[in-house]
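Blackboard transcription, Thursday session:
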Amino acid sequence: MALKPRTKFLLGGALILGTAGYLMASAIAQTGTYYLTPTELASKVAQDPSFYGTGVKVGARVVPGSVIRAPGGRDMTFRVTDGDKTYPVSFHGIAPDTFTDSVDVVMDGRLAQDGTFRATTVLAKCASRYENAPAKYRATPGYRSGGAAPART
Amino acid sequence: MILIGELSLWVALLMAAWGTTAGFAGAYTRRAELIASARRALFAMCGFVVLASIGLWTALLTSDFSFKFVAAYTSANLPSVYKFTAFWAGQEGSLLFWALILSIYATIAVYTARKSNRELMPWVVPTLSAIALFFILVLCFGANPYARLDWIPPDGRGLNPQLQNPGMAAHPPNLYLGYIATAIPFAFAVGALITRRLDAEWLSSVRRWVLLSWFFNTVGIVLGMWWAYVELGWGGYWAWDPVENASFLPWLINTAFLHSIMVQEKRGMLRKWNVTLVVSAFLLSILGTFITRSGVISSVHAFSQSEVGYWFLGFLIIAIAVTAYLVSTRLSDLRATAELESMVSREATFLFNNLLLCGIAFSILWGTLFPILSEAVCGTKITVGPPFFNSVNIPLGLGLLALTGIGPLIAWRRASVRNLRRQFTGPVICGVLVGVALLAGGMRAYYSVMSYALGGFVLATSLQDFQKGTSARHRMYGEPYVIALFRLVARNRRRYGGYIVHIGVVVLFAAFAGLAFKKEFDVTLRAGQTFSAVDGFGDHWTFVSQGVSDYDELNRHTTAVLLEARRNGKFVGMIKSEKRQYIDSQGNPTFEPATEVGILDKPHEDVYTVLAGVIGEDTAEMRITFNPLVWWVWYGGMIMALGGLIVMWPQAERRRAQAGYVAPLAPGFVHAEAEAVS
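(Written on the board underneath:)
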């Protein structure tokens, strides 16, 4: 090996960076998902019907009053909107504590043929915490709270 | 006191502005009185920021709800400790906290460096003032913690239940302490670049601050992981969320610097690289703040999004422009004084270590920013999630783990075959044995097998060096082994503290590798019903529901379910998981019901239960997760922090030398001692 150490190092470095670059490129190709608003999702589906069933991420706002939780709190349905387009969502899993019926959510999942978005994960962002009026207590179905409002002694 | 605090903020603004202008003018014109005035302004600013912070703390602790911040983040019945920690629960307070730490750090840095770095300090002072000025400007005009409401609510909105947790009380301050400590090296780098005094002197002052930053960053990240694990209830501790990534980036860069600085100290190489790392760590801290505060990237973290993020973007652009100009015009002063001699040497190992760390940092930054980048380039937002980060970083991380074992033992300049054989025969055999044993035992998660094998190798290299040093002392001084070990570490803190950090890293990798054997079950249990499952280790577990109970506590109403857990028929413990409805002092519910997970933690595995909800009177819907080796994440983190502390602790040699006593050096130790200062 007549190569200078510096050259060898550069080769080694290029190997490391090349590996990192290759891993990144292939990982993006395999795992990158579209991040869409409901309107964008609708236009994608309209252009290409095979888009039904493709894993996507959707960011939207939950329609107030649309949340229906099944008893036990592990299944629920709600609607999300971006103002123009609204989609019904069904979700099986434990929603984060920050999920309420007026938050912005980011959901992973796929659009089913029947037009329902089947979410596999739901993340809630509580964007504005105190601009809203103080939250009125809503008895959340599926969560037993021992009466409408907890008694204070 | 509150009023004093409010006014102090404005005085601090003036002080910072004066410190910046007078300082730069003084440094440029070399006028001693301006330089001294800027330094005094910096100290005074620190005092006023402290007053401003005390003012906000007073408002919080006395529940003065006329302040928007107090009303937004506390309620009258909040336990005092959380009233205190609510300081950094919201944007305004955390920015003030940032300014507070920055000015205290700056004061300490300027005060302790008053005798050294004479050439640099006139530039360091105004640079630090300028950074502080930026934060105070944001505080006064962008997010004022002293903003008032036009009415006084009877009670505040309360602190988000997820923040009412000891981990969350301690995690942000540690992270901020780590983030902000990068500002001091940055200021020194700017000073050194401007004055072109780029010798090793400024780096020795900087190294301490980078270590400090690294230490707090480590503690902060581990505490954050712990908080996410016990509080968020999704069963894990790291989700590759943008906010988590933002905290990880400066850590990676600091780690890279702490290694490459040794190459510069020892061999005079990598000077450009080191300056770049110092500057990048700070810029990444600011970038992280921008990402998390501006809402340009969606994150689970509930920071209020506002225009404050764009203040940071502006600051970031200015800082990048200034440092890019400085570095590019000073390249000739940063020329290396030596060349790489061999690929089989410590400096080459450290170079690859740096490349890997920076590669990891770059891939994380890329993945985090990818939605913005893809939208800018292709017009559609494309996101990458945990699969991206895992598939890129697991291989790179394993490479890094291998270098962790090689780096400390391989010789500088050029390793001889004899050196390699002497140092690595035992550890390599050890690593191979671990790998073979696991494969023979039926483990088929190959990344996990690799990380255990490499972990065995690294652990063996570190322990071998502890053993060699200890028995050398034992032979030479006749010290008992325990004392020999203690003195060995005490006299070579950098070296052995570093090994302890490495051992912590091995423990963490081992814990991460355990994630491959996680198991999760969704169950519905009525009181008295039993659920059976087999965990990742093949143990049979049974869980018997003891029923659901409701009760009131200080500021919450709780619904809890209790499980009796048995492993292989033997009683192990009770696990309680809760739903909490928090209420304010008027009895009104605040926030949505909060989940409190139940955790049965054992060294080899956690049983992690989440109450999803209750059907009827006594039927609980739950998720039960077997999380192997999570315990070791916390202990690995503690070991790393301990190693960091040992490295940071002031060297004993200096004190002894001052006392007129110099420890006699046995011939065999000259080598070890010489390496210790490497």
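Lecturer's comment: Residues 1-159 of chain B form one domain.
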